[in-house]
Write a structure and sequence with these properties.
Number of helices of chain A: 0
Order of helices and strands of chain A: EEEEEEEEEEE
Largest sheet of chain B: 7 strands, mixed
Largest interface: A-B, 30 and 28 residues
Oligomer: heterodimer
Helix content of chain B: under 10%
Shape of chain A: globular
Distance between the termini of chain A: 41 Å
Number of strands of chain A: 11
Radius of gyration of chain B: 13 Å
Shape of chain B: globular
Number of helices of chain B: 0
Structural class of chain A: mainly beta
Largest sheet of chain A: 6 strands, mixed
Order of helices and strands of chain B: EEEEEEEEEEE
Helix content of chain A: under 10%
Chain lengths: 116, 114
Amino acid sequence: AQSVTQLGSHVSVSEGALVLLRCNYSSSVPPYLFWYVQYPNQGLQLLLKYTTGATLVKGINGFEAEFKKSETSFHLTKPSAHMSDAAEYFCAVNPGSGGSNYKLTFGKGTLLTVNP
Amino acid sequence: DADVTQTPRNRITKTGKRIMLECSQTKGHDRMYWYRQDPGLGLRLIYYSFDVKDINKGEISDGYSVSRQAQAKFSLSLESAIPNQTALYFCATSDSGTGGTEAFFGQGTRLTVV
């Protein structure tokens, strides 16, 4: 069974500062990894995903994440935070052992606050 | 119009009542899911369906049932609602394919059981 741990339920940064949201996963098979963002009163939308190939993945709104197999991590970063980045962020894993097993397992989420 | 539409968006119901949450999608995806979101717990999978004839329990299916009426419609029922089912419910869809396929979410239904 797979699981996801997001370190820090709440992260607060200043506008213009680096954003780092941490995600560690466990999976018995090579995983597919995702970051989703949820803005207030909205559903989730995909920020970026890792499937295969390049381990540094770029997503929307200037976010990127690096898959590190040795550390079982998939941390999300953005060099310079904007006020509009304030939202809740969810890391998710799919075991990737076959399409029939596709069901995302989510972390508990990290609420990002951006201070002016 | 949204690709994944949930109705109602908000609902207050009384303990013991039966309630149905509906989801429809225009993306043409085979796979549909119901998740529940609680503060501090993230999203947890209630039920999922890989096609009209395939329904599977997720990690927290007790107290819930589902119906896949068509490829585009997947409804979630609470047969006898209880207060700890108060939560934000999301429907999602994905295309069949590899595990790297993106899931698309509806706007959510906020359910309050009093």
